[in-house]
Amino acid sequence: EEVNLHECLELITRLARHAGKIIKSRINKKKTIETKANNSIDFVTETDQEVEKLLIEGIKQKYPHHKFIGEESFAAGIKEKLTCAPTWVIDPVDGTTNFVHSYPNVCISIGLVVGCDVKLGVIFNPILDMFFRAIKGEGAFLNDEPIKVSGVKQLTDALAAVEFGSVRTAEFRSIVNHNMNYLATNAHGVRSAGSAAWNLAQVARGAIDLYVEMGFHAWDMAAGDIIVREAGGTVIDPAGNDFELMNRRILATSSSEIAEEVYSKFQQYYPEHD
Ligand code: LIP
Question: Whole-model pTM?
Answer without folding.
Answer: 0.97
